[in-house]
Amino acid sequence: MEEEMYILIAKSLNREADAAEQQQLEDWLNEDIANSDIYENMKAVWQETDTLFNKPEFDVTAAWENVASETIHKTTEKKTITFRKWITISSAVAALLLIVFAIKVFTTEDWISVTADKKMMVVNLPDNSKVRLEAGSTLKYPKTFSKEHRNVSLQGKAFFDIIHKEEQPFTVDANTVDVSVLGTSFYVTTDDAKATVTVTTGKVAMMPKDHSDKIILTPGNKGIFKDHKFNVVSDTNFVYYQQGLLEFKGVSFANALSTIAAVTNSVISMDKNLSNTVQQQLIEISFRDQQLEKMLDEICLITNTRWKKDKEQYIIYGR
């Protein structure tokens, strides 16, 4: 494979490829299954360098010399570099690491990492867009956005209210997917297994990391990406993501719990011995920017019930 294709792959992985370059890469991937293997090897190298650069004390010069010693300075030997037991790349791909390294070291911007430890916090981005970051979530963004794009990354849950800029798309790296907009508001949850996006205003594009597929979401849509597949459902609670407000007036206890489970991406069930009278009692209660367990504390208080966490689900019992 020619060097220009290596560079094109690196630009795509670094989210710097334009539409024409991305299409050129996709055409090349479709030409031969071997090309996909090369792409996956390079992607693995790219992910390994993410780990390297995230170390608290990273010496660029020393690292460059280390990489060069294994590639440029040993071209007379057949050499393999093993990053993990399941990733072994040939010396040809090892040479590619120099390209990856150069792009990552010399184009990396200064990034800020913000973690909402115990409560929700509002983050103002360099373009004055706002992010409501939920407790336990981490947002990373550059001190200054480039002229061509606005890229951030999220681990956890956050509501984004993005200023419209036609010439400067906004992209969220949400672990398993990329979420791209020009200007809109939307809610993102992400973990290692699944990503969900709920749109409150505007349009949002949701794509897997290799950009092999894409869905467009509009207000009230929730896009779910799991097991390499997309699913789109209607979400009537999308205002909650925008305002952080849940109000129940004359709603059954059972229905209120279903809504809370939906907006928090949680599993909440009622004990089989809980009477139908308790389940169907009508309640009035409101929550604003409260965590799931705090909401359960309050709703169980007014319904004379209690909750218990069992692995990944919450079970409601009678008192």
From TrEMBL:
Q: Name one GO molecular function term.
A: sigma factor antagonist activity
**Keywords for this entry?**
Membrane, Transmembrane, Transmembrane helix
Membrane-crossing ranges are 86-106
Q: Which residues form the FecR protein domain?
A: 114-204
Q: Which Pfam families match?
A: FecR
**Protein name, please?**
FecR domain-containing protein
